[in-house]
Specification:
It is built from four helices and 14 strands. The protein is of the alpha/beta class. The strands form four sheets. A five-stranded parallel sheet has the order 3-6-9-13-11, with helices on one face. A five-stranded parallel sheet has the order 4-7-10-14-12, with no helix packed on it. Helix 1 packs antiparallel against helix 2. The longest helix is centred in the first third of the chain and has 17 residues.
């Protein structure tokens, strides 16, 4: 007996069972969001609240989502219905304009307060968060309390910059800020069904840190005050 010959395969064709599996086309990888990206979105939402484009409840929900976001794709929808969101381009995708240099870092004026690059975030959502002891304070701190509490104790802090901006957002929560007695403390915030209390002082010492507390308290409170008897020796307290 002779074995059956396998069926002939037309020239140029491969049997289906031997064909290589088709590779799925993968989309572009999600780009991770940086602290600067979250700060930018939070600033836009703060402007929208001040202009009446979103109400306090919407602002609270979106701010909570901002500091939970891991990627740029999660941030973009939070401002998609705002004017700034129509022209927002993530930094990774933006290309520099010809003849335009990089924006200088440090303090820069804004329509509603001061904006600074390179922030430290202290966030409490249904919980508590605090910074105290000998911790390093940079040019900007974002303090967010949503149904929780944040305590910032700067009385033993090491100031790396002379000008410090604290963006305080308290929504159904509280933020307490303590500073040494020989610094300048200024306030630029507002309360909406809440309290924003900054007990301002002007230091007479040359080169003393200047701390500006700005932001909003919605059904919550922000309290910034000097602690008498606590002093820093110099800018870096070394």
């Amino acid at each position: 007996m002779t074995a059956e010959n396998p069926p002939a395969v037309p020239l140029g064709k491969v049997p289906l069972e031997k064909a290589a599996p088709q590779q799925a086309v993968a989309g572009p990888p999600a780009v991770r969001a940086s602290d600067a990206d979250r700060d930018r979105i939070a600033d836009i939402l703060r402007e929208a609240l001040a202009e009446g484009r979103i109400d306090a409840e919407e602002h609270a929900e979106r701010i909570d989502a901002v500091y939970r976001a891991k990627t740029l794709a999660e941030l973009e929808p939070l401002i998609g219905d705002l004017p700034a969101g129509q022209r927002y381009v993530p930094p990774a995708a933006a290309s520099p304009a010809v003849g335009v240099g990089p924006r200088p870092s440090g303090l820069r004026p804004s329509g509603h307060g001061i904006q600074v690059a390179g922030a430290k975030n202290v966030v409490a959502v249904l919980s508590g968060a605090n910074r105290q002891g000998r911790w390093r304070v940079g040019a900007k701190i974002n303090a967010v309390a949503v149904c929780g509490g944040v305590e910032l104790d700067l009385t033993e802090a090491i100031f790396e910059q002379q000008h410090v901006v604290i963006n305080a957002t308290a929504i159904c929560g509280g933020i307490e800020i303590k500073v040494p007695e020989n610094v300048t403390l200024r306030g630029a915030g507002s309360g909406v069904m809440g309290g924003f209390d900054v007990r301002e002082v002007e230091s007479t010492e040359p080169g003393a840190p200047v701390i500006t507390v700005q932001g909003v308290a919605i059904w919550g409170g922000v309290d910034a005050k000097v602690v008498h008897g606590r002093r820093i020796r110099d800018l870096r307290d070394e």
